[in-house]
């Protein structure tokens, strides 16, 4: 159900909410993999990037595609909405697989975005896209080396895609990476601080049906702390599937710990906070002319400035 919402309903809502903004940003026609409307890249550089993308397409048979669009300005449109508009018109990625990726650069606005298709959210989570932007694109762009920034970003994206030959390999690798990242973000420290706070909150709740039962207090504490954990994970840019897992794990562990602590001291528990969300994408194309394959995007990826 959540997947269906993200894949179908969310893009429709985004289209409705941002239609007026998209009217200001004119999406160009898709004719090739690399489109530079700023004339920043030389013809040789465009050809080199184009050739890399062609070779990438030949190395895998899923129809995954990467496109680059460089424009002078977005005319006041938020870059997230502009990227969705490009996806909507270009239909990046294969229909039903949503395996397209867009690198959008607004040179005069000093903004960039990597828009990731829904089918690639496990391969390139939002945090990974943000890392590519901040570690490869931003430093190069600050030195006016747009070619290197775009080329390095492309290579990182292609490496992530090509190193994931199966869905199982992808999931296992992504989970390991996500766990490492969460540990780096001190999620364990946050979890126990939130658990302590949730217990204080649950004991202060005015609801008598909760106060009369230690079991209910533990459940309430677990639920709220699970949401707090999901909010923490979402705040740090992890994809929706990781957020859902964090909420569930936080709920289960918090409920058990709250029950143990409640039994030892006769106390209760409670907590705080929210979750996050994600995207959908797609694409297809050939070697001569370039055309989309019927895919869409719903907002996955990351944005940055330099």
From TrEMBL:
Query: What Gene3D superfamilies does the record tag this protein with?
Result: 3.10.310.50
**Signal peptide limits:** 1-23
Q: Which residues form the TPM domain?
A: 34-159
Location of region: Disordered: 284-306
Q: Where are the transmembrane segments?
A: 187-206, 218-236, 242-264
Listed A to Z, the keywords are: Membrane, Signal, Transmembrane, Transmembrane helix
Protein name per its UniProtKB record: YgcG family protein
- Please give the organism: Zophobihabitans entericus
């Amino acid at each position: 159900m959540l997947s269906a919402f993200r894949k179908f309903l969310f893009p429709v809502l985004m289209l409705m909410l941002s239609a007026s903004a998209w009217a200001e940003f004119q999406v160009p026609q898709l004719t090739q993999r690399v489109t530079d409307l700023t004339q920043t890249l030389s013809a040789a550089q465009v050809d080199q990037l184009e050739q890399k993308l062609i070779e990438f397409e030949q190395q895998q048979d899923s129809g995954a595609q990467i496109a680059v669009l460089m424009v002078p300005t977005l005319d006041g449109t938020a870059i997230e909405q502009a990227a969705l508009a490009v996806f909507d018109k270009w239909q990046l990625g294969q229909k039903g697989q949503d395996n397209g990726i867009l690198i959008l650069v607004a040179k005069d606005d000093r903004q960039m975005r990597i828009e990731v298709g829904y089918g690639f959210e496990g391969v390139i989570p939002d945090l990974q896209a943000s890392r590519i932007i901040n570690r490869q694109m931003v430093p190069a762009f600050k030195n006016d080396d747009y070619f290197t920034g775009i080329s390095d970003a492309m290579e990182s994206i292609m490496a992530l895609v090509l190193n994931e030959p199966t869905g199982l390999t992808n999931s296992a690798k992504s989970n390991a990476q996500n766990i490492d990242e969460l540990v780096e973000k001190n999620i364990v420290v946050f979890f126990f601080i939130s658990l302590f706070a949730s217990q204080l909150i649950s004991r202060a709740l005015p609801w008598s049906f909760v106060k009369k039962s230690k079991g209910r207090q533990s459940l309430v504490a677990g639920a709220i702390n699970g949401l707090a954990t999901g909010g923490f994970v979402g705040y740090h840019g992890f994809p929706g599937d990781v957020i859902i897992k964090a909420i569930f794990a936080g709920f289960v562990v918090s409920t058990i710990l709250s029950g143990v602590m409640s039994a030892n001291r006769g106390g209760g528990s409670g907590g705080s906070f929210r979750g996050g969300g994600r995207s959908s994408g797609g694409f297809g194309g050939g070697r001569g002319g370039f055309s989309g394959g019927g895919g869409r995007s719903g907002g996955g990826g990351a944005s940055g400035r330099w």
